[in-house]
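Budget justification aside, the reviewers requested a transparent look at the raw inputs and outputs of the sequence design task funded under Objective 1. We therefore reproduce one unedited record. The lines immediately below are the structure tokens for a 1298-residue chain.
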């Protein structure tokens, strides 16, 4: 049974092959389906050698190095001729630059002044409103002000939609919402406030809601709008109210009695009450939740909850809320004393660690029926009071106890009420327990709760029992969701008093995007960046976080040390928090650097580089601004004033406003081929938020155009940053080059678009296209990858183009201030060009004839970029591969090669980074682009599948060729229903696994990480989602396509393959039958080469027959019964061990919600349990799968709530690409979910949206439904049904045979 090489096979080594007996092996996948399904492709080698291989015949000598050079020459031609990199670099070399050294302290003070002025404006508004309220109360005493205007009865005719508020409002009046019990004579200054509030809104951009929340229960809000119209509105239990009237820190322990004596009704009341308490506090307070019966239980979702209180962050609240909701009735009597003992231990432990201030209030809230054991009732009561007396004594009797009696069906015994009152008042003497502490106790109160109780008004106002220290200061909240509109806001509140009488609070809600715009879009130089933290070290804004404008949930509370995770920063942090103004320089070893540092280096030749941190406390707030300079000792270059090219016409991208007569459609974009267009992203403007929140008008566009085209420098600046005009004029020099190529190039049928972008967000694109206002080219992966690979032709993709061109691949290249200074920090622009996906495989077939020798069956060629994702591979263009082709990793498609190259330690490194947006540790690969020579098989016995791999010179990519001479099998660990790694407790460099993630274990009580995870760098910048700017539907029907590739006139595969908007239709609609007469047609007619196949663009979607939807089970070659039995036993044994270990490991992570347990299978789709029929397809990867066999997986899908799905994906969720989705390259990545390219749709598979260079994709693609998450802002148009994207859910590596 000798396995022989087939005639015509290619010898992949340049030396004589070693003669070695082949091994009998099977390429298989094993799938475990028990709660979750996992699939691994593995190497099972039968340790019995049969006969020596027969002499191999017709072997051909082949040099991968020579072929890689051929590919390099082609890529260089694309970069030079089609994109114009050489021309553009020569032009930038000719410009004159000024050099400037950074002065951190000067810059930080200038920026702090700008931000302080914003905060001061809002402080002035709050103080003005406070004065009016307090003055109105004086008038109220003589002439009562009691008139109310119910928000829910305002006629709709008085309300108009306003984009700033994201709802219908009236900007002329305020309105009121009332709590449950409001006296008809209660003070209401609302009508007196109208004019003042309206003036505030007119003169202060960024303001959202202004309100007066009265202690008597009236909530007056401006502008008037309808909200919370079902029932009453208890505003006095909102965290902003509680923090304003009791600003002192609060340490709270809530105990829920769920003993045998408590009925289901009582337990439900207790759980609801505990939730209300949880929702009424904020990050300045600390909390713990206990459940007591015969024993005491704490929340197990974080180990620290057993010993300490945790700050009431959103993550802690979520975990505590989950714990509360899972409390069940117990069969055992309640041990009250145990509950209080644990509560005091938590308070004592936290007190010892934090050394809290003297004004901290410590409270135990007990939710109980008060029933004790019948046999030893008095003993139980005495024991409980003794514990309280002793434990409180250790804390100098500073702990207050509040008890809430849970009524049983309207009846509560007097003895139980008396016991709970004694607990609240700490009447230990009544039970014969002597108070040993010298200080008196702080008496609390007891309140009765029943099913009719309004818990928000009763329990939610627990704080009124705490001392009112009359602290009259403005309080700034951290970011949170706007409950009255949409988006993220920060609130400034201040209490109002009349003498010692608390009247209520005045508050102003401010758009977070506006407050943080100066930090978000800071671009003083390529060498610097900024971040903003509060005085506890929490991070509000950092370059690695998404822009606030696109966030739908506040970022998880993360300490700045986790983002600036470099040696020496801990000391810098201490100084930042302790000194109001300062600076410090630290030296950072290159091997410990951060990606956003490496991208700013001007000299990368040293083993270490300096980083200068300069900071300043923003006056009158609790926020600290910091500017970081990388290599501050090296000057930064800036362009001197330039003039525009005389022949260049400046055309702004708003073709819809300009009425361009030559307009056409470039797929789905309104476009023109007459000229490139210029788009100015938000970072180009002095006030980015104003640009994003206000619609552009024709007059504004004309002003931009006149200013940017003005060589006289006489026209006034319309609000752009000073350096933007120079960047626009500098990029204008590429216009002639692109226009010439449009006329002369033979590759126009394969090129989607060309573009150039600058650090300030100037984008010049051809064909000129209408872009979405929120688009920021500097946050796209093609831009970030190019900057991370300065001077190299950089591949990004494949990804689905948002503009309708199908799957595309981008090559991009940096432009530098000088050809002699090619470091990342000198990059002054990035150029990019999009090609159709099939073009690069066409290049392989045309330039490397060996790749077409057997149509990709046994001999396969591929191009892989430096993170291991395939740019060209036979399976990416396989007409039977129904899978989306985005970001397929080499571990997915070539596990044999992946296993072997991991044994080349200097070639590939498996890296880790911490993603704080979704609390995961991302594992990803980084390949060495400085490798010289080629690589081939290292592992003995793997020669059934030989490969050669080498770098394509001048690029970040590698060329590879695989020659399979017999059946073979490899093992790469890949989860099939989520992205959880096989073993999160260890990571071996030479173990093959798909890019995956593990839960990031954060100590919620301290914010610290485990020692191992603390060494990981923070993941790279999050990529923004994309959307398509909508145009008038009538234009879509009347405008011609800009480029007509005449698909129906292309009669051969070679003439059709890879052409824009064309597909070579080869498979019938059943997904199996090959057409007798293949033909060329538009993509929407046979996407992927299958007639009627679903297009990712829903408007083009055809209907696929049921036969395509079923899993194709392909027969494998038979194996001898004895050998088959042996192999079967070995496989069962080996894989059973793996499966057992994996299941045990996963169960150990069940407490890590939302990253494990319930959330882990959410990533499969952004649907609410809606499935595409293709979810259970296997996808035939033609050729490869005939010799690398897999066992098909049966995947069990379970329902998950939208909340779980969103939480698993971290904060990007509602980024959901706003109507666009396909599998994003970040799903398997350090930044799960992001999108790619200047115009691509990324897939949000639930959230995101998200690398050290990084973006890495998912093992599962998202099925996009008709349910979308539109932009929160109305000027970000939600997508018309004709612009949806759809991609089938796929499972990589299960192209199955059995």
């Amino acid at each position: 049974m000798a396995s022989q090489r087939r005639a015509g096979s290619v010898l992949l080594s340049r030396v004589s092959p070693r003669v070695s007996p082949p091994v009998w092996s099977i390429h298989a996948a094993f799938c475990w389906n028990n709660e979750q399904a996992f699939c691994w492709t593995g190497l099972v080698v039968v340790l019995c050698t049969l006969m020596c291989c027969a002499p191999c015949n017709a072997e051909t000598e082949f040099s991968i190095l020579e072929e890689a050079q051929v590919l390099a020459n082609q890529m260089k031609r694309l970069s030079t001729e089609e994109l114009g990199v050489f021309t553009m670099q020569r032009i930038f070399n000719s410009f004159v630059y000024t050099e400037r050294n950074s002065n951190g302290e000067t810059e930080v003070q200038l920026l702090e002044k700008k931000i302080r002025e914003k905060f001061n404006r809002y402080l002035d508004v709050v103080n003005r409103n406070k004065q009016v309220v307090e003055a109105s109360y004086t008038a109220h005493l003589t002439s009562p002000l009691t008139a109310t205007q119910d928000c829910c009865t305002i006629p709709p005719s008085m309300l108009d939609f306003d984009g700033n508020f994201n709802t219908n409002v009236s900007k002329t009046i305020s309105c009121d919402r009332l709590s449950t019990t409001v006296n008809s004579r209660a003070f209401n200054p609302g009508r007196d406030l109208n004019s003042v509030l309206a003036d505030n809104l007119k003169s202060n951009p960024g303001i959202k809601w202004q309100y007066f929340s009265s202690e008597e229960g009236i909530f007056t809000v401006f502008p008037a709008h309808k909200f919370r119209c079902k029932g009453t509105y208890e505003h006095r239990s909102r965290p902003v109210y509680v923090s304003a009237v009791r600003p002192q820190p609060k340490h709270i322990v809530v105990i829920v009695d769920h003993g045998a004596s408590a009925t289901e009704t009582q337990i439900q009341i207790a759980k609801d009450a505990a939730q209300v308490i949880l929702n009424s506090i904020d990050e300045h307070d600390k909390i713990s939740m206990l459940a007591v019966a015969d024993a005491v239980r704490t929340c197990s979702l974080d180990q620290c909850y057993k010993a300490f209180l945790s700050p009431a962050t959103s993550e802690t609240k979520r975990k505590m809320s989950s714990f509360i909701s899972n409390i069940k009735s117990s069969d055992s009597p309640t041990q009250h004393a145990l509950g209080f003992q644990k509560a005091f231990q938590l308070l004592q432990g936290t007190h010892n660690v934090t050394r809290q201030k003297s004004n901290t209030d410590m409270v135990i809230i007990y939710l109980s029926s008060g029933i004790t054991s019948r046999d030893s009732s008095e003993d139980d009561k005495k024991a409980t009071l003794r514990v309280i007396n002793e434990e409180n004594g250790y804390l100098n009797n500073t702990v207050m106890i509040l008890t809430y009696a849970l009524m049983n069906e309207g009846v509560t015994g007097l003895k139980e009420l008396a016991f709970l009152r004694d607990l609240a008042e700490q009447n230990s003497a009544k039970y014969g327990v002597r108070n040993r502490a010298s200080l008196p106790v702080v008496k609390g109160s007891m309140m009765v709760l029943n099913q009719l109780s309004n818990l928000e008004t009763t329990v939610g106002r627990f704080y009124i029992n705490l001392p009112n220290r009359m602290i009259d200061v403005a309080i700034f909240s951290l970011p949170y969701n706007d409950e009255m509109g949409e988006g993220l806001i920060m609130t400034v509140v201040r209490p109002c008093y009349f003498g010692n009488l608390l009247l209520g609070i005045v508050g102003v809600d401010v758009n977070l995007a506006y407050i943080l715009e100066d930090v978000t879009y800071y671009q003083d130089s390529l060498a610097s960046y900024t971040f903003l933290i509060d005085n506890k070290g929490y991070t509000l804004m950092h370059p690695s976080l998404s822009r606030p404008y696109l966030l739908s949930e506040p970022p998880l509370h993360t300490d700045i040390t986790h983002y600036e995770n470099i040696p020496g920063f801990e000391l810098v942090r201490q100084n930042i928090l302790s000194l109001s103004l300062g600076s410090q320089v630290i030296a950072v070893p290159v091997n410990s650097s951060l990606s956003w540092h490496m991208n700013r280096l001007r000299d990368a030749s040293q083993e270490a580089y300096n980083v200068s941190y300069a900071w300043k406390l923003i006056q009158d707030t609790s926020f600290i601004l910091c500017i970081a300079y990388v290599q501050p000792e090296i000057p930064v270059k800036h362009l001197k004033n330039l003039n525009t090219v005389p022949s260049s016409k400046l055309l702004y991208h708003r073709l819809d406003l300009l009425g361009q007569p030559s307009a056409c459609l470039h797929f789905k974009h309104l476009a023109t081929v007459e000229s490139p267009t210029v788009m100015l992203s938000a970072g180009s403007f002095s006030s980015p938020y104003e640009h994003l929140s206000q619609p552009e008008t024709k007059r504004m566009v004309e002003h931009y155009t006149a200013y940017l085209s003005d060589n006289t420098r006489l026209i006034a600046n319309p609000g752009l940053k000073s350096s933007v005009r120079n960047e626009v004029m500098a990029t204008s020099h590429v216009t002639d080059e692109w226009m010439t190529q449009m006329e002369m190039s033979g590759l126009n049928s394969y090129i989607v678009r060309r573009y150039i972008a600058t650090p300030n967000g100037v984008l010049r694109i051809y064909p000129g296209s209408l872009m979405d206002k929120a688009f920021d080219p500097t946050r796209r992966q093609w831009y970030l990858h190019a900057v991370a690979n300065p001077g190299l032709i950089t591949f990004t993709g494949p990804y689905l183009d948002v503009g309708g061109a199908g799957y595309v691949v981008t090559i991009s290249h940096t432009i530098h201030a000088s050809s002699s200074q090619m470091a990342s920090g000198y990059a002054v622009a990035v150029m990019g060009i999009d090609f159709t996906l099939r073009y690069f495989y066409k290049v392989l077939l045309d330039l490397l004839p060996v790749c077409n020798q057997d149509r990709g069956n046994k001999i396969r060629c591929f191009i892989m970029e430096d993170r291991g994702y395939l740019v060209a591979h036979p399976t990416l263009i396989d007409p039977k591969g129904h899978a989306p082709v985005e970001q397929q990793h080499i571990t997915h498609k070539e596990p044999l090669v992946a296993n072997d190259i991991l044994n080349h330690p200097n070639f590939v490194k498996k890296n880790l980074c911490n993603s704080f947006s979704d609390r995961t540790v991302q594992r990803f690969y980084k390949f060495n682009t400085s490798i010289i020579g080629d690589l081939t098989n290292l592992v003995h016995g793997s020669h059934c599948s030989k490969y050669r791999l080498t770098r394509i010179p001048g690029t970040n990519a590698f060329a590879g060729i695989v020659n399979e001479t017999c059946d073979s099998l490899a093992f790469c660990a890949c989860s099939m229903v989520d992205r959880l790694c096989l073993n999160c407790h260890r990571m071996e460099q030479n173990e093959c696994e798909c890019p995956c993630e593990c839960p990031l274990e954060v100590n919620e009580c301290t914010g610290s990480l485990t020692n191992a995870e603390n060494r990981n760098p923070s993941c790279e910048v999050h990529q923004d989602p994309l959307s398509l700017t909508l145009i008038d539907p009538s234009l879509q029907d009347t405008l011609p396509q800009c480029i007509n590739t005449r698909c129906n006139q292309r009669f051969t595969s070679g003439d059709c393959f890879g052409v824009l908007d064309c597909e070579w239709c080869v498979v019938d609609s059943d997904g199996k039958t090959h057409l007798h007469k293949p033909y060329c047609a538009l993509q929407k007619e046979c996407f992927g080469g299958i007639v009627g196949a679903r297009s990712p663009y829903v408007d083009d979607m055809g209907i696929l027959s049921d036969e395509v939807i079923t899993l194709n089970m392909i027969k494998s070659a038979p194996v001898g019964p004895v050998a088959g039995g042996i192999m079967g036993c070995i496989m069962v044994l080996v894989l059973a061990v793996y499966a057992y270990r994996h299941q045990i490991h996963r169960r150990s992570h069940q407490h890590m919600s939302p990253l494990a347990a319930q959330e882990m299978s959410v990533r499969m789709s952004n649907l609410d349990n809606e499935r595409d029929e293709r979810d259970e397809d296997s996808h035939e990867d033609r050729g490869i799968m005939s010799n690398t066999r897999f066992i098909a997986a049966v995947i069990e899908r379970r329902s998950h709530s939208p909340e779980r799905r969103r939480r698993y994906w971290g904060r990007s969720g509602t980024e959901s690409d706003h109507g666009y989705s396909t599998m994003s390259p970040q799903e398997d990545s350090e930044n799960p979910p992001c999108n790619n390219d200047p115009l691509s749709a990324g897939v949000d598979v639930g959230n995101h949206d998200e690398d050290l260079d990084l973006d890495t994709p998912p093992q599962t693609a998202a099925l996009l439904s008709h349910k979308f998450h539109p932009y929160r802002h109305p000027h970000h148009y939600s997508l018309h049904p004709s612009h949806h994207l759809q991609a089938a859910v796929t499972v990589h590596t299960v192209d199955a045979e059995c």
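The first strand starts at residue 25 and ends at 34. The CA atoms of residues 707 and 715 lie 6 Å apart. Computational costs for records of this kind are itemized in the attached budget.
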